[in-house]
Structure formats: C-alpha cells, structure tokens
Amino acid sequence: MQSVTDFYQDHRGPVISQELTIKNGLKSACARNQAQYFSLANQGQTDHDWQTLLKTATKVQLTTKKPVMVHVRAKDVQPDQVKSTFHHLLDLELNNYLLVTGDKLADSNGFSSAQELLVATGQTGLAKLSLATTLDVNQVANHGVAWVVNQALAKDRAGAKVLISQIFFDVDNFLAVQEGLKMAGSDLILVAGILHYPSQNQLDWVQRVLRLTVPDDWRENPDLASARLVADLTDGQAAGIHYFANF
C-alpha cells in the first residue's frame, strides 16, 4: 500500500486525513471520502482486540483503496518481538504506522515510549515502513518554541517522518513550531491534529483528560470555531490536517 508520506509531496493545500475507530471504521471511512488516508485508533485491551483492529484496517484499505495508518502503542510491543510484529503487519499490506505512548494491552510490558519503539523499529532493517508519531504543540506555552522543535527533531532522528500534533486550540503555537522546523532545515511533515465539529461531551473530555482549557468560542459555537481553525491552518500552509474521531 502507498506510503502516506507520498501525499505530502508537492501538496497544494493541506492533506486531509481522518481518524477512525473499530466501532464504526468502515462506515466512517466510506462517509469521509474527502480524506486522502485514514488512521485507526487502538483502544483494545486484549490480543483479540488487536487482531480485530488489523482485520478492520485491511478491510478499510481494500474497500476504499486508501492507506490506513495503524496505531501501534509502544507498551504493546515486546523488545524481542519488534521485527516479527512489523513483519506480520507488512504481510497484511499494512505499512503505515502511528507509534504512540499511552495505554497498553492487559499484562503487556513493552517499550516505555513511542520514541524508544521508533528507534528499535528503525533497527529492524525492514523496508517500506512508514513511521509517524505525535507531538504536543501546546508545550510551546510552557517551554517555548525551541524546546518543542527540539522534541520534534529528536523524533526525526529516531526515525519518524510524520508528526501528528495532539489536540490544540491555539493555532499560533502550531504555526510557530512549523516555522521553527523550517528554520532548522528539517523535512519533517508536521500535521495538525484537530477536533472537527466536536460535541460538548468531547470538549468536556479534552478538558478533563488532556487538561486543556477549552476557549469560550469553542464552547459557544464549536462548529464555527473548528471551521476557523481549519481556515487558519490552510492560510498558514499547514502540510496536513488530521481530524480526530468524534465520540
């Protein structure tokens, strides 16, 4: 299957990607035909859940003829099984991965961070791996632009080609990091991960779990605020916009 990085070559306007969930993966993919590729969230707690995720990913690819970026959680991959894990994924024609730090399968004891898994994956020697991970641009407010850019460059050195930002509301933070990477001469692809027309429940979750302050304009009219953010990112020549799944 095509590498998602191909979509960002000579792009005109942001590349659109859409996160899917197991619950409504194929239905959502078919309904969101504006997306150039998809990502499939990994929320499972058993090996059966993981196998279901892989089956869903292959089905979406076969049906839509578009790549699916499979979410691989660092703690789920055992250090001695990195090569076999990704070899199996390649056999399924799943070659695009978003490596994330976070939840894990029950009784799993893999890598402690996505960055560690990135390094180990790069050492497998397997060809055709398209590796992405996340970046928190909200940290600009706490640590400054240079600090966040250095975090991004460390992920680049570890093997990431695409960085999808975590949820943010302040477009200036994202654009500042984008400019910082440009000034550093990096060819990393920075993608804006955003909420698209979120519900109040979703905004409550962002504030409670991610501990982000939800701006008043998002509370008052989330559809309009979301549209404005997309417009600002488009004007700012963002390489891509990744829509997180609604719930």
Give the SSE map.
Blueprint: E1 15-20, H1 25-31, E2 37-40, H2 47-64, E3 68-73, H3 82-91, E4 96-100, H4 114-122, E5 130-135, H5 140-143, H6 145-158, E6 162-165, H7 171-183, E7 189-194, H8 200-210, H9 216-220, H10 222-235, E8 240-243
Parallel strand pairs: 1-2, 1-8, 2-3, 3-4, 4-5, 5-6, 6-7, 7-8
Helix pairs in contact: 1-2, 4-6, 6-7
Descriptive notes:
With 247 residues, the chain is α/β, with parallel strands linked by helices. Helices cover 43% and strands 17% of the residues. It is built from ten helices and eight strands. It has helices spanning 25-31, 47-64, 82-91, 114-122, 140-143, 145-158, 171-183, 200-210, 216-220, 222-235, and strands at residues 15-20, 37-40, 68-73, 96-100, 130-135, 162-165, 189-194, 240-243. It has an eight-stranded parallel beta barrel with strand order 1-2-3-4-5-6-7-8, surrounded by five helices. Helix 2 links the parallel strand 2 (37-40) and strand 3. The longest helix is centred in the first third of the chain and has 18 residues, at 47-64. The mean pLDDT is 89.
Number of E-state strands: 8
Which spans have pLDDT < 50 for at least 5 consecutive residues? Answer: none
Rg to the nearest angstrom?
17 Å
Helix content: 40-55%
Beta-strand content: 15-25%
Backbone shape? globular
Spatial separation of the terminal alpha carbons: 28 Å
Continuous helix count: 10
- Order of helix and strand elements from N to C terminus: EHEHEHEHEHHEHEHHHE
Give the strand order, joined by hyphens, for the main sheet.
Answer: 1-2-3-4-5-6-7-8
Q: Report the biggest beta sheet as strand number plus sense, adding barrel if it closes.
A: 8 strands, parallel, barrel
The pLDDT mean sits at 89
Q: Structural class from helices and strands? A: alpha/beta
